[in-house]
């Protein structure tokens, strides 16, 4: 692929659409704990976001929860731009009583929770300045080397009590998520990530990042954001197809900066004989494992 055939650095992810069993049951997680605001709502669809910008769209109609270790959504990641904002979410999660987790990935700090339909959610604060290098280990894994020379797996627990020290006594916790929060990446469970990467890299035009069969993670992005779309095989032989009517990913959105970028993707899809539907400048298609995505132009 030539330089002109890779996605522009200004490419970003847009709204992520998810199927849920019960919208009212999902809202205490997405709205009250995460902090998204309700932008529009009817009996079948609710749009959630920040400062009028849609990040998540919940679709009613799923008949069963997405089972663990199903091929489909692993999590959608909402990124915040300050550690204090991450601490606010941590405080709301702790107060909610919801089961949640937290990990220090060295290049980021993350909180994890799922909605009642089994849709995984990550709230992420990027910390790339802590990383000095990434190295392959003798066993084929990945070792992260910090600026101070220490080595990390990237899977250490995050100290929540220390994180909460970011909040002073005057800081408000029950407030909407910050207006500059955004969809930073989406992560799926996969059967054949090598096949998926051939599509996301060779057809859509993403750039490779981690491609490790031994570690079980494949991801891709742009020069500016290398980790945007990820697939793991951590469930390996236990991975199952989601049952008919299950919650999970409806589709995610890739936002392109120019018409030239959109036309280039359409041309590569045609060349690769990948079925797609283009209406009014919007491309709808599926990847080789059936994950649906929509490619659109930036509106501003």
From TrEMBL:
Q: Read off the Pfam families from this record.
A: Glyoxalase
Descriptive protein name: Catechol 2,3-dioxygenase
Question: Which organism does this sequence originate in?
Answer: Rhizobium loti (Mesorhizobium loti)
PROSITE patterns given for it? VOC (PS51819)
Q: Which UniProt keyword terms apply here? A: Dioxygenase, Oxidoreductase
Q: Which InterPro entries match?
A: Glyas_Bleomycin-R_OHBP_Dase (IPR029068), Glyas_Fos-R_dOase_dom (IPR004360), VOC_core (IPR037523)
The segment(s) forming the VOC domain are: 12-126, 182-300
What GO molecular functions are on record for this protein?
dioxygenase activity
Under SUPFAM superfamilies, the record lists:
Glyoxalase/Bleomycin resistance protein/Dihydroxybiphenyl dioxygenase
